[in-house]
Design brief:
single chain; mainly beta; Jelly Rolls; 5-stranded antiparallel sheet; 11% helix
Protein backbone atom coordinates (compact mmCIF):
# COMPACT_ATOMS: atom_id res chain seq x y z
CA UNK A 1 0.00 0.00 0.00
CA UNK A 2 1.41 3.38 -0.94
CA UNK A 3 1.29 6.18 1.59
CA UNK A 4 0.66 9.64 0.23
CA UNK A 5 2.03 12.83 1.70
CA UNK A 6 -1.45 13.61 3.03
CA UNK A 7 -0.78 11.09 5.80
CA UNK A 8 1.95 13.33 7.20
CA UNK A 9 1.54 16.53 9.15
CA UNK A 10 4.48 18.79 9.88
CA UNK A 11 4.97 21.26 12.73
CA UNK A 12 4.57 24.15 10.30
CA UNK A 13 1.40 22.76 8.65
CA UNK A 14 -1.54 24.46 10.35
CA UNK A 15 -4.11 23.39 7.81
CA UNK A 16 -6.01 20.16 8.04
CA UNK A 17 -7.57 20.33 4.59
CA UNK A 18 -5.88 17.18 3.32
CA UNK A 19 -7.69 13.88 3.54
CA UNK A 20 -6.39 10.36 3.86
CA UNK A 21 -7.89 6.91 3.66
CA UNK A 22 -8.46 7.00 7.42
CA UNK A 23 -10.94 9.86 6.87
CA UNK A 24 -13.19 7.41 5.06
CA UNK A 25 -13.20 4.60 7.63
CA UNK A 26 -16.46 3.80 9.42
CA UNK A 27 -17.03 5.95 12.50
CA UNK A 28 -16.63 3.00 14.88
CA UNK A 29 -13.00 2.53 13.73
CA UNK A 30 -10.37 3.86 16.17
CA UNK A 31 -9.14 7.35 15.46
CA UNK A 32 -5.94 7.15 13.41
CA UNK A 33 -3.13 9.48 14.42
CA UNK A 34 -1.11 11.14 11.73
CA UNK A 35 2.64 10.96 11.51
CA UNK A 36 4.08 14.20 12.85
CA UNK A 37 7.33 15.68 11.57
CA UNK A 38 9.11 18.44 13.46
CA UNK A 39 11.28 20.18 10.90
CA UNK A 40 14.79 21.38 11.68
CA UNK A 41 14.78 24.53 13.81
CA UNK A 42 11.01 24.18 14.39
CA UNK A 43 8.94 23.01 17.34
CA UNK A 44 7.93 24.91 20.45
CA UNK A 45 10.95 26.60 22.01
CA UNK A 46 11.18 26.91 25.78
CA UNK A 47 13.64 29.20 27.59
CA UNK A 48 14.62 28.30 31.15
CA UNK A 49 17.42 30.45 32.49
CA UNK A 50 20.43 29.81 30.24
CA UNK A 51 18.88 26.68 28.69
CA UNK A 52 16.99 26.50 25.44
CA UNK A 53 14.88 23.47 24.77
CA UNK A 54 12.89 22.58 21.70
CA UNK A 55 9.84 20.36 22.21
CA UNK A 56 10.01 17.52 19.70
CA UNK A 57 7.16 15.42 21.16
CA UNK A 58 5.21 16.28 24.31
CA UNK A 59 3.25 13.04 24.46
CA UNK A 60 0.07 14.31 22.81
CA UNK A 61 0.61 12.10 19.76
CA UNK A 62 1.82 9.04 21.68
CA UNK A 63 -0.81 8.83 24.43
CA UNK A 64 1.97 10.01 26.77
CA UNK A 65 4.09 6.89 26.19
CA UNK A 66 7.03 8.92 24.86
CA UNK A 67 8.28 12.50 24.95
CA UNK A 68 11.38 14.19 23.53
CA UNK A 69 13.19 17.51 23.86
CA UNK A 70 16.31 18.94 22.29
CA UNK A 71 18.41 20.96 24.75
CA UNK A 72 21.06 23.52 23.95
CA UNK A 73 23.27 23.86 27.02
CA UNK A 74 25.66 26.85 26.97
CA UNK A 75 29.26 26.45 28.18
CA UNK A 76 29.66 26.29 31.95
CA UNK A 77 25.93 25.72 32.52
CA UNK A 78 24.38 23.10 34.77
CA UNK A 79 21.34 21.53 33.13
CA UNK A 80 20.31 19.78 36.35
CA UNK A 81 21.68 19.28 39.82
CA UNK A 82 21.51 15.84 41.44
CA UNK A 83 17.98 14.42 41.24
CA UNK A 84 16.10 11.26 40.38
CA UNK A 85 12.81 10.45 38.70
CA UNK A 86 10.46 8.11 40.51
CA UNK A 87 8.26 7.28 37.54
CA UNK A 88 10.06 7.71 34.24
CA UNK A 89 13.17 6.70 32.36
CA UNK A 90 15.32 9.14 30.38
CA UNK A 91 17.80 8.86 27.58
CA UNK A 92 20.31 11.42 26.36
CA UNK A 93 21.94 11.48 22.92
CA UNK A 94 24.77 14.01 22.76
CA UNK A 95 24.44 15.54 19.30
CA UNK A 96 27.05 18.30 19.57
CA UNK A 97 29.77 19.15 22.07
CA UNK A 98 30.10 17.28 25.35
CA UNK A 99 28.41 17.04 28.74
CA UNK A 100 29.39 15.86 32.20
CA UNK A 101 27.11 13.14 33.58
CA UNK A 102 27.16 12.44 37.30
CA UNK A 103 25.53 9.08 38.08
CA UNK A 104 26.36 5.87 39.86
CA UNK A 105 28.80 7.65 42.17
CA UNK A 106 31.06 8.89 39.39
CA UNK A 107 31.30 11.68 36.82
CA UNK A 108 31.80 10.82 33.16
CA UNK A 109 32.20 12.95 30.05
CA UNK A 110 29.81 12.11 27.21
CA UNK A 111 30.75 13.42 23.76
CA UNK A 112 28.89 13.88 20.47
CA UNK A 113 27.48 10.52 19.42
CA UNK A 114 27.39 9.09 22.96
CA UNK A 115 24.07 7.76 24.27
CA UNK A 116 23.12 7.59 27.96
CA UNK A 117 20.24 5.55 29.41
CA UNK A 118 19.05 6.76 32.80
CA UNK A 119 16.56 4.37 34.40
CA UNK A 120 13.95 5.60 36.88
CA UNK A 121 15.27 6.14 40.44
CA UNK A 122 18.91 6.57 39.30
CA UNK A 123 20.29 9.81 40.81
CA UNK A 124 21.98 11.94 38.16
CA UNK A 125 23.15 15.44 37.27
CA UNK A 126 24.00 16.92 33.86
CA UNK A 127 26.23 19.91 33.05
CA UNK A 128 28.29 21.39 30.26
CA UNK A 129 31.80 21.96 31.56
CA UNK A 130 33.22 22.62 28.09
CA UNK A 131 33.80 25.96 26.33
CA UNK A 132 31.22 25.32 23.57
CA UNK A 133 27.46 24.75 23.39
CA UNK A 134 26.29 21.18 23.91
CA UNK A 135 23.18 19.95 22.12
CA UNK A 136 21.44 16.95 23.68
CA UNK A 137 18.40 14.99 22.46
CA UNK A 138 16.54 13.91 25.61
CA UNK A 139 13.69 11.35 25.74
CA UNK A 140 11.20 10.57 28.50
CA UNK A 141 9.05 7.48 28.98
CA UNK A 142 6.34 8.19 29.87
CA UNK A 143 6.15 11.72 28.53
CA UNK A 144 4.58 13.54 31.48
CA UNK A 145 7.90 15.12 32.52
CA UNK A 146 7.80 17.37 29.44
CA UNK A 147 5.20 19.38 31.37
CA UNK A 148 7.81 20.07 34.05
CA UNK A 149 9.89 21.98 31.50
CA UNK A 150 6.81 23.80 30.22
CA UNK A 151 6.01 24.81 33.80
CA UNK A 152 9.54 26.13 34.41
CA UNK A 153 9.49 28.04 31.12
CA UNK A 154 6.17 29.61 32.08
CA UNK A 155 7.53 30.59 35.51
CA UNK A 156 10.64 32.05 33.85
CA UNK A 157 8.56 34.00 31.32
CA UNK A 158 6.95 35.94 34.17
CA UNK A 159 10.35 37.12 35.44
CA UNK A 160 12.80 36.92 32.56
CA UNK A 161 15.67 38.77 34.29
CA UNK A 162 15.60 36.61 37.42
CA UNK A 163 16.76 32.99 37.69
CA UNK A 164 14.45 30.44 39.32
CA UNK A 165 15.62 29.47 42.80
CA UNK A 166 16.28 25.95 44.12
CA UNK A 167 13.08 25.87 46.17
CA UNK A 168 10.95 26.67 43.12
CA UNK A 169 12.73 24.02 41.06
CA UNK A 170 12.42 21.43 43.83
CA UNK A 171 8.69 22.15 44.20
CA UNK A 172 8.12 21.89 40.43
CA UNK A 173 10.09 18.61 40.22
CA UNK A 174 8.05 17.08 43.06
CA UNK A 175 4.88 17.61 41.03
CA UNK A 176 6.35 15.19 38.48
CA UNK A 177 7.58 12.46 40.89
CA UNK A 178 11.14 13.81 40.85
CA UNK A 179 13.25 14.32 43.94
CA UNK A 180 15.83 17.10 43.90
CA UNK A 181 19.24 17.01 45.59
CA UNK A 182 19.02 13.40 46.77
CA UNK A 183 19.11 9.79 45.64
CA UNK A 184 16.36 7.27 46.36
CA UNK A 185 16.22 5.51 49.72
CA UNK A 186 18.05 2.17 49.59
Amino acid sequence: MAISSSHFKTADDNSDSSSSLSDFLPSQAPDRQRVHIVRAKRGDELRIGELTCRVMEDGTRTENRFGALEFTIPPGTTMSDLHYHGMHDETFLVMQGSIKVRAGGKTTEAKAGDYIVMPAREPHAISNASDADAVVFNTFTPAHYINYFKMLANMQRHRPKEMLNEREIEHAMARYATMYGVGPAK
